[in-house]
Amino acid sequence: MDKIKVGQAVNAVGLKGELKVYHYSDYKERFEELSKVYLENTLYKINGVRYMKDMVILKLQGIDDRTEAEKHKGEDIFFDKEDMRILPEDTYYITDLIGLSVVDEKGDKIGTISDVIQNSAQDLYEVEREYNSKFLIPAVEEFILKIDMNSRTMTVKLIEGLMV
């Protein structure tokens, strides 16, 4: 079964076995929609979710004291791919964008999406070219003309200086 990484346990909270989680989701409330998560490869039922600033505090069934919670510090947190939300049209999961072939308006291959950097203004697509050179393309309509998930391509409009 495919799993999606949604966060990392960074510390224990309190004495009752809660975990402080750094989340990778676009919104921390995502954990409220889940009934279960994996700590590495072990499945746990979610018994409670609360927040401490931008951190998620999880109470998982079977982790009942601070000592047990501390054992999980640094572990990655996953959920089943089947629990992914259905996104609105023209919205994509980062995992689906990684590996897309990037082509210009003429159809010439420029490179491959190697990462998506989430920025406060807008996301940035990192495009890896031959010989490991990389450049960034802002994820805005001015530059991203089309994303075709069937052919796994992203068509972009380049401007002078973008591929420095």
> Structural class from helices and strands?
mainly beta
Low-confidence regions: none
Rg, rounded, reads: 19 Å
End-to-end distance, in Å?
A: 41 Å
The number of helical runs is 2
Instruction: Kindly state the number of beta strands.
Output: 12
CATH topology of the largest domain: Elongation Factor Tu (Ef-tu), domain 3
Largest sheet: 6 strands, antiparallel, barrel
Q: Considering the protein shown, what is the CATH homologous superfamily of the largest domain?
A: RimM
- What's the CATH first level of the largest domain? Mainly Beta
Q: Give the helix level as a range of percent.
A: under 10%
Molecular structure report:
By secondary structure, the chain is mainly β. It folds into two domains: 3-83, Elongation Factor Tu (Ef-tu), domain 3, CATH 2.40.30; 94-156, SH3 type barrels, CATH 2.30.30. It has two helices and twelve strands; from the N terminus they run E-E-E-E-E-H-E-H-E-E-E-E-E-E. The protein has a six-stranded antiparallel β-barrel with strand order 1-2-5-4-3-6. A hairpin with a 5-residue loop joins strand 7 and strand 8 (109-117). The longest helix has 5 residues, at 66-70. The relative contact order is 0.15.
